[in-house]
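Quick one before lunch.
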Amino acid sequence: MEYEPVIGLEVHAQLETRSKIFCGCSTSFGEEPNTQTCPVCTGQPGSLPVVNQKAVEFAIKLGLATSCRIAPYSLFARKNYFYPDLPKGYQISMYEYPLAEEGFIDIVVEGKKKRIQIIRIHMEEDAGKLKHGETPETEAFSYVDFNRTGVPLVEIVSGPDIRSPQEAGDYLRKLRAILQYLEICTGDMEKGTFRCDANVSVRPTGQKEFGTRTELKNMNSFRHVEKALEFEIKRQIAMLEDGEKVIQETRLWDVDQGITVSMRGKEEAHDYRYFPDPDLVPLKIGESWVEEIRKSLPELPDKKKKRFMEAYQLPEYDADLLTSTKAMAAYYEECVRLFPEPKTVSNWMMGELLRELKRDEREIDRCPVTPEHLTDMLLMIKEGTISGKIAKDVFVEMYRTGERAEKIVREKGWIQILDGREIEKAIKKAMESNPKQVEDYRKGKEKIFGFFVGEVMKETKGKANPKLVNELLRERLKN
Ligand code: ADP
Ligand code: MG
Ligand code: ZN
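Model of the magnesium ion complex:
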């Protein structure tokens, strides 16, 4: 039997406000433990929360950017449970009345647009952090750091519309791009500002009803989300094949072993005894404020991509990649402004540039090759100063040293050979050392031509102008 996975994702994104969601404490990361705290975020008696307007504005931005309906009335609720990182004994979240509902995000699956529904977006506060450990001096310890307690989050719940781990990854990348374009979240999974819980079930292909799902936690990179889903889908299929039932539960991704392990039975919403927080008034968001925020939205990934395809005549694949982050799109546009050959720039960015960035795990905003440096080099190719082949080495040098192409080419003597006499010399040598091939060529074995081009290039260390080599070689080989 064939099975089909069904996936729905819950993403927690940390909003980049300067202060926390219900108090004035700083959200600054990496400070000494428990220095960014006050009576409100540590749950002291008599303290009262006040909602951070900037956090609400950011959440509305995201709601609009994902085509959600912004609720004119939403309500903070208490989600009650005990955990040492939760000093109040409840988390302030939203339950019956979320801030935004019924939106969507489009991704591209096998060249076609696929729409993933957003069920809801709600605001909530983050919990603190526990630190467990053991040192020779202290024995085993557990510490709690409340600096993160009360940092604003949005939770974005997708519909069960995702059908493969790859689609899940694409959805997450798109959502993260939107958050980053809006400049409301850094989207860093490793630092935990962008976290994902994945709900997954399988069903026999063709069956309408969903199967029983499990919820996966503890994945701190896109790769791990995809891997955890792959593992879990296989595990569930194997269970069904054996006639067993999948149990609804929360499972943890074990990075080292590459497996998911049971963590706890699935809790239900009613277990949390949600009720409206009596310390906070309902959020009534006026239409005029929403419109004001709508007008302030930047150009978002989909729109930018469409513009790139039209204005620069780029294939969808190129446009998709080049608009995947705001910084990359800006880099591209700056290059095209300096060197108006859009497809050439795209090819270099998607090929050499991204390869180097990936190799040392850098984002483009820390790229040692600036748009000026890249386009200077493209101009040198265009003017025939260097060959396209040598340019690849020049680029690697530019990336490594941060120097300009012109300097590198001069110092390394990589200037293209346009001098016919020098190329003739190389041709003569290639022919003399391969008399048999010359004879074969003259007998009609035309394919050997490529071999001679290779020989001449080797002799000139790749510096000969290819067009000139072709012309001269054809002439010489003939007679
Ligand atoms: P809960 O309140 O228990 O977290 P929700 O109904 O809010 O449950 O759903 C949470 C997520 O699980 C959503 O993203 C939804 O799309 C997804 N989901 C719901 N049912 C299934 C299922 N059978 N298989 C896979 N995902 C599911
Ligand atoms: Mg949930
Ligand atoms: Zn505080």
